[in-house]
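I'm stuck. Please check this protein.
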Amino acid sequence: MNESKNPSAVFSKSQIQSALFDLMDRIPYEKITVKEILYESKVARKTFYRNFDSKDDVLDSIIDRFLKEYLDSFMAMEEESLEVFFDVVFSSVENNISFFEILNKNSLLHLVFEKLNIVIPQMHEKLCSDCSFFRGIEGNLSRYLIAFNVGAVWNVIMCWLADGMKTDRNLVKKTLVKYLAGM
């Protein structure tokens, strides 16, 4: 994806992303063509390819946009606690429920998980080497804790989504915090 800050390019990218997302709500992802994205977004083929290499590249940029918002939420945490951590996780899902529903409908939720396994360790390496969650962990062992945490949190969210988010998130959060405190 081209990372231009030009307002016209930013607008075009947004139109293309929205068009793909709208199409994914109506048509299975694997059946969507670039031609349909062009028709839906009302942008020229040249504009599409100036910004993206393929429809997969568009989807990747949508996931990246969500992950940026998700990670920015963690950066804004004023307190390092499991309660605040889980609040951020559940809020991010609730605020982006259509994102998760459409990806789930198209059997593409695994793409978010795969990206999380890339970006969370990178974020940790840059920003969290002294986070309280990782104090006392020697050398390269923190990567195992990160993998454990990403997988565990992802599975909790998938379970919550599969349940239709019927269980009160605060009850889930309290249960998880109580369990982790007893470890």
User: Anything to note?
Assistant: The chain has a mean pLDDT of 87. Residues 55-75 form the longest helix (21 residues).
